[in-house]
């Protein structure tokens, strides 16, 4: 029955001119926050040995159309990236988006906040083949014998605001602010 439903959804998507990339599920801001927090805890528990899990395309930190990546602001290096292994070990501070914004400088600043933060930029969406507006949530994993590794995950969206997303982080971090189910 599930296969019939999936085929029906793909058929309707094809009729409407939606490609497979758009028919796939998209990550939500809540999922990005939760995955970043989980990755930070994972790295705090496992230390440097946990980085391999963040580099795996088939690992627990890749879902829907998003993934967690890790970087080191102090050492100016990409530490883990499941979709772009060619970036691992490379300098990050000079990386710009298609509008010339130094995205990792902004990510490092946002990650230094107590609860982390969101950064907006334009980036090529995997599978879409075009530049899209991306919002990435970043935080810091406190690891033994390290100044901390920053972790991030993003969502592609044209309507969300950084201010609204930072409020979401605050409400998710404070159970008293969460709305009842």
Describe this structure in words.
It is built from six helices and six strands. The protein is of the alpha+beta class and 181 residues long. The N terminus is likely disordered.
Q: How would you name the CATH homologous superfamily?
A: PAS domain
Q: Work out the count of structural domains.
A: 1
Bin the strand percentage.
Answer: 15-25%
Mean pLDDT: 85
Low-confidence sequence ranges = 1-23
CATH class: Alpha Beta
Named CATH topology:
Beta-Lactamase
Query: From N to C, what is the helix and strand string?
Result: HHHHEEEHEEEH
Q: Which shape, going by the Cα principal axes?
A: globular
Largest sheet: 6 strands, antiparallel
Features:
181 residues, alpha+beta, 34% helix
Describe what is shown at a glance.
The protein contains 6 helices and 6 strands.
Topology:
Blueprint: H1 2-15, H2 20-23, H3 29-46, H4 51-54, E1 62-63, E2 66-72, E3 77-80, H5 103-111, E4 117-124, E5 131-141, E6 149-156, H6 162-173
Antiparallel strand pairs: 1-2, 2-3, 2-6, 4-5, 5-6
């Amino acid at each position: 029955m599930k296969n019939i439903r999936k085929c029906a959804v793909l058929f309707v998507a094809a009729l409407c001119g939606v490609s497979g990339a758009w028919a796939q599920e998209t990550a939500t801001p809540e999922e990005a926050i939760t995955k970043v927090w989980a990755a930070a805890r994972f790295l705090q528990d496992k230390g440097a040995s946990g980085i391999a899990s963040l580099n795996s395309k088939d690992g627990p930190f890749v879902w829907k159309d998003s993934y967690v990546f890790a970087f080191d602001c102090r050492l100016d290096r990409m530490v883990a990236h499941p979709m772009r292994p060619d970036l691992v070990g490379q300098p990050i501070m000079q990386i710009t988006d298609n509008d010339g914004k130094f995205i990792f400088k902004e990510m490092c600043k946002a990650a230094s906040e107590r609860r982390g933060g969101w950064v907006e930029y334009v980036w090529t969406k995997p599978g879409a083949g075009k530049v899209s507006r991306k919002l990435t949530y970043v935080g810091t994993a406190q690891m033994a014998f390290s100044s901390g590794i920053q972790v991030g995950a993003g969502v592609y969206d044209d309507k969300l605001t950084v201010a609204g997303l930072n409020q979401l982080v605050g409400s998710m971090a404070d159970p008293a602010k969460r709305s009842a189910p």
